[in-house]
UniProtKB/TrEMBL annotation:
Boundaries of every Phosphoribosyltransferase domain copy: 135-230
Organism name: Algoriphagus confluentis
Coiled coil: none
InterPro entries reported in the protein's UniProt record: ComF/GntX_DNA_util-trans, PRTase-like, PRTase_dom
CDD domains reported in the protein's UniProt record: PRTases_typeI
Protein name listed in UniProt: ComF family protein
Length: 231
């Protein structure tokens, strides 16, 4: 009883609001109002996972398997706003909720029992300390919860890299070359893995991580992001 009273008090003093439109949320709503959740720019890459514009984007950078993204990215659109809230407005719960929503889409499309674990792209320890959480790991948590598999934090980032935002495709690949590694004693041999990040633009970061997993004996490495952006 006290817990519910405390929650009601917090909601009164600090009302929860929709991450998209800012309206107050009802108790049954998580991070989005019902209206905004229903109008998220959901993509359909999962319907052609082995042959879509994302698989074409990473061709030649890594061994291509399934490549998926939950939302279509558009500048000044809902997807960009959500990513900004997740990364820079201290809303880790938003990443987890997006993971849960996408996992339900995948299950509806027949993706049960496809993967053994979800692997988030890691942040450098300094950036993790500064932000307080890894947005890709939060997305992974939501996916894993609904897909009923584990989150496997098996990668580490060994170099602090510059921001990728204004770099070309070649510069991005050079920027993440030999950045990621599998710690000693960790094995991914024979595992079917879903490697996740917040957004895919050129695919450099995801492909660098995927190459480490493939080289370490993973049976399959699929890629998934919250949103898919342009070049």
């Amino acid at each position: 009883m006290r817990l519910f009273l405390w929650k009601d008090f917090l909601d009164l003093v600090f009302p929860r609001s929709c991450s998209v439109c800012g309206t107050d949320l009802y108790d049954f709503e998580k991070c989005f109002c019902t209206s905004c959740q229903g109008t998220l720019p959901v993509a359909n890459f999962h319907l052609r996972p082995f042959d879509n514009e994302l698989t074409s984007k990473i061709q030649g950078l890594t061994q291509v398997n399934r490549v998926l993204a939950f939302l279509r990215f558009s500048k000044k659109g809902k997807s960009q706003k959500l990513l900004h809230q997740l990364k820079y407005r201290n809303q880790p719960e938003l990443g987890e909720e997006l993971g849960r929503l996408y996992a339900r889409v995948l299950i509806t499309a027949g993706y049960q029992n496809v993967w053994d674990a979800v692997v988030p792209v890691p942040l450098h320890p300094l950036k993790l300390k500064r932000r307080g959480y890894n947005q890709s790991a939060e997305f992974a948590k939501g996916l894993a919860q609904i897909l009923e598999i584990q989150v496997f934090n098996c990668l580490e980032r060994r170099k602090f890299t510059e921001t990728q935002t204004k770099k070309s495709r070649l510069q991005r690949m050079e920027n993440v070359d030999e950045v990621f590694a599998l710690p000693q004693g960790i094995s991914v041999s024979g595992l079917k893995l879903l490697l996740v990040d917040d957004v895919i633009t050129t695919g450099a970061t995801l492909c660098s991580c995927a190459n480490v997993l493939w080289a370490s004996g993973a049976k399959a490495v699929d890629l998934a992001t919250i949103a898919a952006g342009g070049q």
